[in-house]
Amino acid sequence: MAAFRTLDDADLAGKRVLVRVDLNVPMEDGRVTDDTRIQAILPTIRDITTRGGRAILLSHFGRPKGRDASQSLAPLVPAVAQRLGAKVGFVDDCIGASAEQAVAALGAGEVLVLENTRFHAGEEKNAPDFVAAMAKLGDLYVNDSFSTAHRSHASTEGLAHSLPSFAGRSMQSELDALTKALEAPERPVLAVVGGAKVSTKLELLGNLTAKVDILAIGGGMANTFLAAQGYAVGKSLCEHDLAPTALKVLESAKAAGCEIVLPVDVVVAKAFEAHAPHRVVGVDAVAEDEMILDAGPQTVRLIAGKLERVKTVVWNGPFGAFELPPFDAATVAVARAVADRAEAGLLLAVAGGGDTVAALNQAGVAERFSYVSTAGGAFLEWLEGKALPGVEALRR
Ligand SMILES: Nc1ncnc2c1ncn2[C@@H]1O[C@H](COP(=O)(O)OP(=O)(O)O)[C@@H](O)[C@H]1O
Ligand SMILES: O=C(OP(=O)(O)O)[C@H](O)COP(=O)(O)O
């Protein structure tokens, strides 16, 4: 028997199906800049609607503290409708009278998006009253969001205990593909971790050092390590409070025999904007009024050198502020080098994360990777061998 109930086990006709999806997609000026996560949920939505169910989509967007119009899911609704090729409704809350009325008015085969779950404090607290208020809106619960499975939130975990629950098609295929690709990875394994979510991803790097042979750290993540080692990082994105955690990661790596690769040179600018005047400097030469926005060419060469002796690459987090050219250079160069070797059959390359996938698409290499996951943090936690609350809650 499969570990999870899937849509194959569900009687969907006429049912109100609460579907946890991840509409936390990269956006710029109200426009979706990478639709991978939207494409990923279409099979599940279509499965529900063609079988006469009512698909009620739940998602967070960003990390708002309470209701915040700039983090609304409303601009995502036309993007979902366009890719689905069907009308999609929207209601400005995910609980309460307005949501209840909109769900009651939803016909069989129709689709509705509810407003950002994180507008309510109960979401991240997984508060029982908030879970109950959402559960009232559905007969069944489907989790199709592997990328939020590491969160023990009301819409990712709580609801699975309140309603008959099922894994969606994307959730199923992510778990299948990652298990196949990485259950017993060929060594040496190189993990590449960058990005901006330093506080939520730094701690897990300690455990990751026990699983991989080389850990290359870049992006905003690297700045915290550089600062912890005593380098001045100026105005860079950096969590100075987390210096002790960064030092612990370095100690764990030493104990595990995992080689750590940090930037040796960086690209710095005084403004966080595209084409800002910039210079390449050694990591010991960042001025007080500068910020690190990318890794430098020497660092790229260093990582390219490591690629020559590894058999598996796992990657989450861009190496720089890739949305702002030319600070995409290191990410693009490393992505191309990995893709070339994957395509030549010299290594297996798996990458994941909302922005990482966007960066690989921007570099035009996503198709040349062995597997690309929608998930970043969840992918790293899965790789560590951690039980993911959103996945565990779906087990039979
Ligand atoms: N040096 C840097 N300074 C500021 N932002 C950075 C830097 N390096 C990377 N980033 C940002 O990190 C973000 C992606 O991080 P993250 O959300 O952790 O990745 P993912 O979504 O792939 O899991 C991008 O928006 C990118 O601009
Ligand atoms: O974008 C996401 O994760 P990712 O940046 O690790 O790929 C998910 O939507 C989770 O978002 P969160 O890290 O705010 O919980």
From TrEMBL:
<feature type="binding site">
    <location>
        <position position="201"/>
    </location>
    <ligand>
        <name>ATP</name>
    </ligand>
</feature>
<dbReference type="GO" id="GO:0006096">
    <property type="term" value="P:glycolytic process"/>
</dbReference>
<comment type="subunit">
    <text>Monomer.</text>
</comment>
<keyword id="KW-0324">Glycolysis</keyword>
<feature type="binding site">
    <location>
        <position position="37"/>
    </location>
    <ligand>
        <name>substrate</name>
    </ligand>
</feature>
<dbReference type="GO" id="GO:0043531">
    <property type="term" value="F:ADP binding"/>
</dbReference>
<protein>
    <recommendedName>
        <fullName>Phosphoglycerate kinase</fullName>
        <ecNumber>2.7.2.3</ecNumber>
    </recommendedName>
</protein>
<feature type="binding site">
    <location>
        <begin position="60"/>
        <end position="63"/>
    </location>
    <ligand>
        <name>substrate</name>
    </ligand>
</feature>
<keyword id="KW-0418">Kinase</keyword>
<comment type="pathway">
    <text>Carbohydrate degradation; glycolysis; pyruvate from D-glyceraldehyde 3-phosphate: step 2/5.</text>
</comment>
<dbReference type="Pfam" id="PF00162">
    <property type="entry name" value="PGK"/>
</dbReference>
<dbReference type="GO" id="GO:0006094">
    <property type="term" value="P:gluconeogenesis"/>
</dbReference>
<keyword id="KW-0808">Transferase</keyword>
<dbReference type="InterPro" id="IPR036043">
    <property type="entry name" value="Phosphoglycerate_kinase_sf"/>
</dbReference>
<feature type="binding site">
    <location>
        <position position="151"/>
    </location>
    <ligand>
        <name>substrate</name>
    </ligand>
</feature>
<comment type="similarity">
    <text>Belongs to the phosphoglycerate kinase family.</text>
</comment>
<feature type="binding site">
    <location>
        <begin position="353"/>
        <end position="356"/>
    </location>
    <ligand>
        <name>ATP</name>
    </ligand>
</feature>
<feature type="binding site">
    <location>
        <position position="37"/>
    </location>
    <ligand>
        <name>(2R)-3-phosphoglycerate</name>
    </ligand>
</feature>
<feature type="binding site">
    <location>
        <position position="118"/>
    </location>
    <ligand>
        <name>(2R)-3-phosphoglycerate</name>
    </ligand>
</feature>
<dbReference type="InterPro" id="IPR015911">
    <property type="entry name" value="Phosphoglycerate_kinase_CS"/>
</dbReference>
<dbReference type="InterPro" id="IPR015824">
    <property type="entry name" value="Phosphoglycerate_kinase_N"/>
</dbReference>
<keyword id="KW-0963">Cytoplasm</keyword>
<dbReference type="InterPro" id="IPR001576">
    <property type="entry name" value="Phosphoglycerate_kinase"/>
</dbReference>
<dbReference type="GO" id="GO:0005524">
    <property type="term" value="F:ATP binding"/>
</dbReference>
<dbReference type="GO" id="GO:0004618">
    <property type="term" value="F:phosphoglycerate kinase activity"/>
</dbReference>
<keyword id="KW-0547">Nucleotide-binding</keyword>
<keyword id="KW-0067">ATP-binding</keyword>
<dbReference type="GO" id="GO:0005829">
    <property type="term" value="C:cytosol"/>
</dbReference>
<feature type="binding site">
    <location>
        <position position="323"/>
    </location>
    <ligand>
        <name>ATP</name>
    </ligand>
</feature>
<feature type="binding site">
    <location>
        <position position="151"/>
    </location>
    <ligand>
        <name>(2R)-3-phosphoglycerate</name>
    </ligand>
</feature>
<feature type="binding site">
    <location>
        <begin position="22"/>
        <end position="24"/>
    </location>
    <ligand>
        <name>substrate</name>
    </ligand>
</feature>
<feature type="binding site">
    <location>
        <position position="118"/>
    </location>
    <ligand>
        <name>substrate</name>
    </ligand>
</feature>
